[in-house]
Amino acid sequence: MSPPREIEIVGGGLAGLSLGLALRRAGVGVTLFEAGQYPRHRVCGEFIAGLGAGTIAALGLAPFLAGARQHREVAWVFGNSSAERRQRLPEPALAISRHRLDAALAAAFVREGGQLHTGARVTDTPSRAGRVLCTGRRRANPGWMGLKFHVRGLTLATDLELHLGDQCYVGLAPVEDDRVNVCGLFARRPLCAKGANLLLGYLQAAGLRSLAQRIAAADIDATSFCAVAGVACDPGITSSAGPSLGDAAGVTPPFTGNGMAMAFQSAESALPHLLSYAHGEISWAVCSRLMHEVLADRFDLRLRTASLLHPWLLRPSRQRWLRALAPVRFPPLRPLYALLH
Ligand SMILES: Cc1cc2nc3c(=O)[nH]c(=O)nc-3n(C[C@H](O)[C@H](O)[C@H](O)COP(=O)(O)OP(=O)(O)OC[C@H]3O[C@@H](n4cnc5c(N)ncnc54)[C@H](O)[C@@H]3O)c2cc1C
User: Fold this and answer.
1) 289 lies in some domain
2) Which of 78, 148, 205, 284 could form a disulfide with 129 if both were Cys (CB 3.0 to 4.6 A apart)?
3) Nearest to 246 by CA among 139, 109, 136
């Protein structure tokens, strides 16, 4: 019997690493090219909603999530007011830093015999047999930017806080080691500040002055600051040049807390088809088509729903409706959660 065909993965975020690890555990040769290094901080709210026990088991993720915090309640805070709406999450969310999670997955991939090339940006990314793109978000209109850092010594109203400001939202999520992740999506503004002060400046400019003061009084880890520009979301799975997983296949708005889960779930969905290809049962063309179909089936409705809701969180005119309807518990979280996860 001939050995399995090899798989090449471009991009070592959650989609690429979890896929590479699962393929290695199934005895398939994998080479993974990652432009960056491990460990490193990523712009990410670092809370994982809607991951599901099936995906954790299928990809063997339990050991990597063992140190994650579990969060059950979120407080929505509208503008600079102290008005908040608390909601119990239908399922607990997990929170763990990407600094820890990505590095642990990368180390496990190498232990399992995967070939990992870091600092290796692939510049020709057209489709070719056996190559899977896990390259993350495509750069889009630079109008929206994501900013993040970790703080210590910040007490939250409840497990998680989500603050809605003028053309922005910001999540606070405790992760491991008594750190709180502060991460937001902001409409770009001409601010002069740099590093951690840039995030504080954006909070002020978006009208979230009390939040900015609370955070400034805590212990900010300036080394964890990171930023990305050009954040955009997709209303469905994209038809890219080649088989893509995670954000490369379709980006969900950050407020869902579901992008990390989708990265894992897309690897889970693609895995059986990639194994069939590796064992010579199907061609690369068939494998690519099946991967696209399975992702569209699993994620299209989720992405469409999330992109319709997104402006309600960002635009003050619509946030006012959310605030007015909060006392009567509208919109209802449970059915929306089911559609978004
Ligand atoms: C502001 C913000 C907040 C967010 N908050 C949350 C949250 O709280 N919860 C949640 O679940 N999700 C959140 N997300 C989304 C989440 O971060 C992504 O959905 C997730 O990281 C996608 O994983 P991925 O593996 O597809 O891509 P990534 O994690 O982006 O990994 C892609 C990798 O590919 C590498 N790469 C790219 N191009 C090349 C190339 N040509 N050659 C080699 N390597 C390459 C990159 O260096 C990167 O390491 C947030 C996103 C933003 C912008």
Assistant:
1) yes
2) 284
3) 136
